[in-house]
Amino acid sequence: MKFDPDDEQRLLAESVERLLARDYGFDARRRILASDAGWSREVWASFAELGLLGLGVDPEHGGFGGGASGTQCVMEAIGESLVLEPYLSTVGIGARLIERGATRRATWLADIIAGRLTLALATTESDSGYTPTHVRTRARQTASDDIRLDGEKRVVLHAPDADLLIVSARSDGEPDARDGIGLFLVERAAPGVTVHPYRTLDGLRAADVVFSDVPVVERIGPPGAAAPLLEEALDHATALVCAEAVGALRYANAATLAYLKERRQFGVPIGSFQALQHRMVDMTVSYEQAKSMAALACSTVDRERDPRRRQRVVSAAKVRVADACRHVSQEAVQLHGGMGMTEELKISHTFRRLTRLAQQFGDADHHLARFAACDPASVEASA
Predict the structure, then answer these.
(1) Are residues 79 and 132 in the same domain?
(2) pTM of the prediction?
(3) What is the reported pLDDT for 274?
(4) Which residues pair with 120 in a beta bridge?
């Protein structure tokens, strides 16, 4: 199967790289990181102007219908520049869920594409781990026929400034039951929503969010049967996270190779030492393997309708990418020496981003177990 980008994707990648080179250099990123919001609405407006916020949205709703494969190059650029804006949560997850299950999808999608609306996905709970269908948050219907939410979500990326939260909540059943789960749009500023913000390891804004008798704006998907919709969206998001990691891996390799050529010891570049050359080769192999698996994952979530086959490929990709994140980030820091962990060097920030990406939506152990559970024999038996 051919995974090379086509001409349109290459042109888009070049446009995104020019935009980020102009507005998102390392010093500019550090200023954005230190700001109160932790991300730039000016950069977000530039994304909208370039059409990036509608990249995965169907043309019927004003987007470009690029899917994960079409968004892959953007995610790689985001990973390479360590972008702080809520692109994945708004475009990669939020827009996808709204397009597939919201009644007022046309209005919401138009606002997303124009840059007027940002979203955050609130599914993780204190005891849910990486299992999105473990849900204790409750949705109840009142006498006036509206829906109210009660519960708590943890580590909700981009929640402090999101306009809307997409919240998983249970209308019936035990916490581990797949049936009874719904997805709901909630205004972050609604009465009863309490946001406890903090920064993640790599500087993103996140929050623990408490819901107390919170009114729902709209339900996404069928009542009590949103588990397949949520799982499909998270597989799509995991494929995009793999692509983002590829961009960060590419930078880590390029920066390390440049350093090995520039840093001199005993009168020669340290890159001339055979032991360090071997380590650099191993880093390159890890990057190339991760790149191929990320491309396979993006292609698979776009075309594969069978959930178990989709899950098997996505998990295989995340295992390979997570291992590459660990290997390349650690080697990059070690080969830079003590300065590799200083705030003044971008490689230290890349190390932290790769560490988080390796964990996001499931670490290597979680996805290895899921990969094994979707072995070919069981997949064929369920087909």
Answers:
(1) no
(2) 0.94
(3) 93
(4) 165
